[in-house]
Amino acid sequence: MARWDARILVLGSMPSVASLAAGEYYAHRQNRFWRIVGEIAGFDPHETYARRRRALCAAGIALWDVLASCEREGSLDSAIAEDSIVVNDFAGFLAAHRRIARICFNGRKAEAAWRRHVLRRWPDAPEFDCRLLPSTSPAHAGMGYRAKLRAWRRALA
Hints:
Layout: E1 8-12, H1 17-22, H2 33-41, H3 49-58, E2 61-65, E3 67-69, E4 86-87, H4 90-96, E5 102-106, H5 108-118, E6 129-133, H6 145-156
Parallel strand pairs: 1-2, 1-5, 5-6
Antiparallel strand pairs: 3-4
Helix pairs in contact: 2-6
C-alpha cells in the first residue's frame, strides 16, 4: 500500500495468519505496529483500517512485504520454508515510487530476506538508506514498547 509520493518503505517479511485472514497488515491484536506508527505519525491506532492506511500514506510511508508468498506452519518467521519463498516485484514497485529513499525493515527476517532474495538477484539495485528496526510482533518480547518506539521514531523521522 503506497502513494506515488511515499518517501519511506516499511517492509515486513510476510503477513501473519491473522493478517492474511483479515486482509489487513498487522492485524494481530498484540502487534504494536499501528500503535507505534500512529504515535509517530499522529493518528489514532484504533481508527478503521482504511483510515489508518490513509494516515500512513499521508505521512509518506509505504507498507509492503519482502515476500509475495511462502510456505510455513503458523505465523512465525522462523517457520518459513526457504525453498518456498517468492519475493515481490521490487524493481517495478520502486520504479513507480521513485521518491522512496529509505527502507525500514520490521525485524531481522525482513532484512535477511531482502538481502538474500532481492539484492542478490538485483545487482544494479538503487542505493537506499536501509534501517533494521525491532520487530513490532508480539513474538519479539525482548524489547519493551518505549525502546521500540524510540527506534521507530528515529527511522521514520
